[in-house]
Structure formats: C-alpha cells, structure tokens
Amino acid sequence: MMTANTFDLHTYWTRHLRPRLKPLPYLLLLPTVYFVYLFTIMPTFKVLRDSQTYYHPNRPAREIMSDLSLPGIEEAKRSIRGPHDVGFAYFRAMFDPDTVEGERFFRAMRNTIIYVVTTVPISMLLAFTFAVLVNRRLRWIGSARIAFFYPTMLPMVSAATIWLFFFTPEYGLWNAALRWFGYHGAENWVINPDLALVGLIIVAIWKNAGYFMIFYLAGLQNLPEDVYEAAALDGASWWVQMFRITLPLLRRTTLFVSVVAIISAFQTIDHALVMTYELVTGEADLLLYEIYNQRFILQNYGFANALTVVMIAILLGLTIINFLISERENE
Length: 331
What we know:
- With 331 residues, the protein is mainly alpha-helical.
- Helix content is 69%, strand content 4%.
- The protein has 14 helices and four strands.
- The model has no long low-confidence stretch (mean pLDDT 85).
C-alpha cells in the first residue's frame, strides 16, 4: 500500500508539479522581495509599534504625577521623558479636536486637503494645455518643450528659493506683477497666515505642471491619427475632437497622472521647509511637515509615528484605488 502511494505521489510530482515549478524566476525575485521587506514592510510595522510609545528625549527624566496629557491614560508617578507604552492613546488624541494633538492633526489635514485639491487639478489642467500646445511639428517647438519642462529639472529647494525672491515684499517680481494688475494687499506671502499656503500651492503648480506635461504629451503622440482624419471628414470641429476623441482616449493617462499627482502632493515638504519655517502659527503646515516638526523639532516621537501611520494608510488607500480602477479599465 505504501509502495503504491509513494509511486503515485512520485508520478504526480514528476508529471504535473515539477514542470510547473521553475526555481529561476523565484530566485530572481528574492533580492527585490528582501529589499521590499527591509525598507518598506519592516519599517511600516516598526512605526506602527512606535506609535504606541510615549517618548520625549528632549525632556528631563524626573518623575512626577502625570497622565502624559493623553486620553485614556491614568495619572501615575512616571517619567515625563519616557518611554511609556500608551497603546492607541495618540490615535484617540489625534481624532479628538479638543486635544493639542487633535488640533494639530485636523489643521494639518485641512491644509493638506486644500493643497491637494488645488494643486492637483490645476497642475493637470496646465500640463494638458502645455502638451496640446507643444504637440506640433514646428521648427522651434523643442525650445518650448524645454521651457515648460525646465522647472521640473530644478530641485524643489531651488524652486522654493527662486520663489522666495519672487515673493519678496516691495521689489519681488510676484508683487510687482500683482501691483500692475491693481493688487494692494499684503505682500509678505511666506509669513502671512492667510497667504503662506497659497504661496506653497503656487510653487508646487509651477514645479509640477511641466512634469505631468510629459505624460500627456506621450499620450497625445500615441493617439491614432486615422480617428482624427475620419472626424475631420465628418466635419467635427477642434472642440468636438478634443472632448469627444482626445480626452476619452487619454482617460488612462489622466488616471495615472492624477494618482501620481495626489501621492506626490502628500509627500511634499521641501518647499515648506524653505519658505514657511518662520510661520510658527501653523496655518501652512502640511501633514508631512507636521510629522517633521513633531519628530525633529518638538521631539514628540509617539505622535510623529502616529501621524506617519495615518499618512501610510492614506497613501496605501490611494494605491489600492488606483490598482482597482486600472484593473477595471483593463477589463
């Protein structure tokens, strides 16, 4: 009986399983899997665990009666430096607008949402417009493409430095141009609580529109010309061709650009560090900037890690949505 079973298993392995299991593809994937685990999966779980730890290394180690100013933590004699295991106290505090953490979180999320819903559609609209303008066979069209794409080649820190000069009160180019159009409002944009976020939005749009233009330009150049020839023979105007042919055919490109733009907007911090570091009231603090502020300036490690977990969840959700929509489009 054992011999028959052994023979059957050997035959099944030899005829069915062994031809399908080829080790080489899995061996080639091992380095990628290792680095994904080392630099993505493991840090994600570590930051999730550290978000449950109260730790302020900049505070003295003396012990006092304290509830650590966190909801759900009983008052006891403990070090105000830490570390202390506080469970999900930071998340409870974060979603409570009456706490300091909740106030900072909701303010950063409000600024980030305003930043995203403003920069993404305007950048995409300008990118599509630029792509349509430079998608021509003219002699000097290459120079126009370089001019539109040039801001993308600059590091964000350099772009922010350039715009700091533009935003300079009295003699800055931005304020001079606005005065020419009759503007007489506040001029020190980067430290004005009402204008600092607008300044960050302007820099991001100027920096990113040329980058997204490349994707639209590639999509336009791959569209079938016979469709436009048939539409022209039917008497379709330029506007009809744009809204009935071009935009529907660029649907996948638009989806890709929108996801990239949204994720990029959530990960932006460079120009905020350069331009609004003097604005201490927080009106222009984005989510990633708040994480940086809590981790490196205030040294509130637990809250910084909790904010990071929220940001990871947001980006993961956007990635999954992009994947599901892409799969539906492919079907």
